[in-house]
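I had to read the description of the data format several times before I understood it. The format is easy to grasp once an entry is in front of the reader. For illustration, here is how one protein appears when written out as sequence plus structure tokens:
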Amino acid sequence: MTTHPTQPSPGVCPELTPAAPLTEEVRDRLAHPDEAELAALDAWWRADNYLTVGQIYLQANPLLREPLSPEHIKPRLLGHWGTSPGLAFVYAHASRLVRHTGQQLIYLAGPGHGGPALVGAAYLEGEYTETFPEITQDVDGLRRFFRQFSAPGGIPSHASVTTPGSIHEGGELGYALIHAFGAVMDNPDLVALTVVGDGEAETGPLEGSWKGISFLNPARDGAVLPVLHLNGAKIAGPTVLARKDPEEVRQLFRGHGYEVLEVEGDDLPGMHQRFAETLATAYGLIRDIQDRARAGEAPTTRPRWPMIVLRSPKGWTGPHEVDGTLIEGTWRAHQVPLSGVKDDPDHLRLLEEWLRSYRPEELFDEAGAPTELVTRNNPAGPLRMSASPHANGGLLTQDLDLPDVRDFEIDVPAPAVVRHESTRVLGELMKALYERNPRTFRLFCPDETNSNRIGAVFDVSDRMTMERVTEDDVKLSADGRVMEVLSEHNCHGWLEGYTLTGRHGLFATYEAFAMVSASQTIQHCKWLEEAHHLDWRADIPSLNILLSSTAWRNDHNGFSHQGPGLIQNVLQMRGDVARIYLPADANTLLAVSDHCFRSRSHVNLIVQDKQPQLQYLTLDEAREHCERGASIWDWAGNELDSREEPDVVLACAGDVVTMETVAAAQILRERLPELSVRVVNVVNLMTLARRKDHPNGMSDMFFEELFTTWQDVVFSFHGYPGAIHQLVHGRNDADRFHVRGFIEQGTTTTPFDMVVRNQASRYHLVMDALNNSQRHPRGSAELKAWCEAQLDRHEEYIREHLQDMPEVRDWVAQDPGSEVSGRPVEA
């Protein structure tokens, strides 16, 4: 595991306590702020708006202590104003709620392009300076704070991994609410307040995410409070929900199961008063639901959780008109509403008037620090949303209580002679994880837990639902903790939220449909890649993904279910995050899984099919194999003592292609014994890379020990052939690698026909070995002709008998020898 020397220690964080009981007095105080509180609320909001505008525009003169001039303006104006004042408005009120109740609360900004408002909030709370000491709370620190925004060597324009308090990169819209639900699962003291932008609400993942309340049990889980912010427009036009009749919007979300509360307007202080009352009502409903459930009044059906619909103008408090064109409340406020301020004196004047409208002299003292009027609205310590340990989940992470994987070992008396559904052992391992870690481990799967042969978890946990249960349902209850919903987006995003807040889990899905959520996988990789460079971000549990029901064994489902594309996507990610494992059998899967569940801040992609498959290694051998990442399998090859190096190397990575490689080696051993053949199996795909390209990459010496220096390598790969060529690029004579893999040839057919169609069958591999061997012993031409005849026979046989030939269908290794393990090769 890669660690950061100056990182905070896992499991060490400020003490957190549950929120105090919600008395009638507190409810009333929340709903009815007095004049002093309204003044502090409004001052905090104005200060955050000022910081947002300053980040977008200013590189100097941060508090307007002199008239604004073109030299004070950044050369490039980047950022998003339109959603920011709404985000700041909600944040100010959420902080006041936390201050009165002691509620642990995190804030997720769905319209994450409003990043300057979230960065500004962390600055006003003091957490930004604590995290980045060079950004001091004075005039000079504020100048640096403005200059860094959306600038080289600075910070991104979105709420992101560099933003204290954030667990959500808002650059790609659609996932805020999914992350929020994952964050509160098994997290009873947490509320995730989530602002959903009305443009974001048009995305498919967000539309599906509203169903999250069907999977929250108020007795043991926290709560999500969505705030749907309808400000009327996205980047270049109106939004769908903002143009709908309000009653239609109400009906839509009531149909999803929410209690809809609404706030609308732009008048002040009226909006502050109305929103405070609405937020108090929403919070009271949440606490009532939880208090009843935790007092033993378990709900028989899903509670009606609250949500808030907030209608306020896009670009609220910004320029109303510019050059006679309406800006505030329109799509024109989305990004930079005043352009050309360096060159246009009128625009420069409007910018100065805009900034001064917030009355910065009331908000920042002589030194440049936020005044007491502003900071009065801040909660204390870890209750500040920018300082919440839940938003730096590595601080809360505890190691899993892992069983000894020896308890699940499959007996392998000899290699390639017994079959087993390998993923069943993973189900047994996760069953033990559920038992030993009842609040820190969950499986997320799109209705495919049994299908992927990991259903042993149902021995100890039901599927989770808060909807009604009928007598026909099996293993389905409000007490369940196995998460099944037919949405890859929800499953993936829930696990992200779960791990980002410090818990562990696995997302299991059919291989082809992992591409539905592939963008989420990539975005999470990017988050971890950036977090790797931030010492204050503690390492979190890895995102573990099992791809089963793979391309090669979805022969019954057809072409739509056949695709290994996620491997190619993850392969592009940086080596400090991305890991891809291709275990060939059950014991290797156990060794890989044990490693992945212990790892931190990785995206671990595990690819293994669910169908019965041949078993090769004992657990000890599998562990040694995984430690190396790749090994020579002596028992499978036919290396002649008379030759210093083999004539050809047969390499493989992936379960089905490993079987084809071992079968091809046997054909060569039996029919052409004079040919010296080596078999190499690769389990950790990243070991093929050079060490300078990936931390798991093997040394040149080890690489040559496995693959020789000059001999040709016929490589049979689970995924697209180009992946292997990419990985071995830069190795000695990389052109000697001839790769067989998935080439998008598929249909509803037999298992063996899938490898034939993709030219990766044992017969193709034998012919490749003959074509690329340095020697051609007597009988080579006859063997090649026999392979071609076998392929012709296969085609005829499956059409007549609708199944594979017996010698393929029932194939096991013959006389594999007594040595099972790979040759010990030193790295």
